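About this split. The held-out portion is used to measure sequence recovery: a designer receives only the structure tokens and must propose an amino acid at every position. Recovery is the fraction of positions where the proposal matches the reference. Here is one held-out target exactly as it appears in the evaluation file.
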């Protein structure tokens, strides 16, 4: 298992009550499953309405790279990686 730092923003900070935490997972899919197990339905509804893909309005970055440009949910994780889960942000 890889130990990774997970950073939360906006609504995810409200759901988790944290800015960041360390988790252990081998892939993005496994990390999301662990987070859903830990934080329950509110997090599941927010980031994982379809277990086969990341909602289009969310971005998950691994060391600053969007997982959609890597292997999406099957992106492998290694010790020390920083995972940023970014919900949509609006402005005007």
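Reference sequence for scoring:
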């Amino acid at each position: 298992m890889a130990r990774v730092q997970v950073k939360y923003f906006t609504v995810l900070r409200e759901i988790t009550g944290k800015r960041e935490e360390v988790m252990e997972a081998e892939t993005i899919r496994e990390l999301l499953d662990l987070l859903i197990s830990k934080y329950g339905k509110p997090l599941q509804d927010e980031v994982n309405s379809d277990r086969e893909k990341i909602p289009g309005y969310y971005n998950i970055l691994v060391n600053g790279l969007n997982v959609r440009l890597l292997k999406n949910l099957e992106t492998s994780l290694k010790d020390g990686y920083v995972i940023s889960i970014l919900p949509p942000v609006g402005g005007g």
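Annotator remark: Helices lie at 11-16, 28-39, 41-47.
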